[in-house]
Amino acid sequence: HLFLNPNNSMLSLDIPSGITIEKTQFYNVTGQKIRTTNAISTWDISSWAPGVYFMNVKTDAGSQKFKFVKQ
Question: Are 53 and 23 in contact, with CB atoms under 8 Å apart?
Fold first, then answer.
């Protein structure tokens, strides 16, 4: 399981040992892809506008989707 820890400036995932992030894609509430990253688990979202966002995390163990709110 992946756990999302959002706050107003940083977003991070708690990843179990042995799991590797391959790609993460971020989308805004209208479904527009706004960012793609590879192999990292912490993101600076301080410049993002307040609102609802979605992320799709692909790991070597499968994919998981998250929804979070930037204040």
Answer: no
Class of residue 44 by CB neighbours under 10 A (exposed 0-12, middle 13-18, buried 19+): exposed
The tokens describing 38, both together, are 């590879």
Res 69 pLDDT > 90? no
User: How far lies 2's CA from each of 34, 47, 49, 64, 66, in Å?
Assistant: 21, 24, 24, 8, 9
| Residue of 50, 52, 54 whose CA lies nearest to 65 | 54
Q: Is the pTM of this model over 0.90?
A: no
Q: In angstroms, how far is the first alpha carbon of the chain from the final one?
A: 25
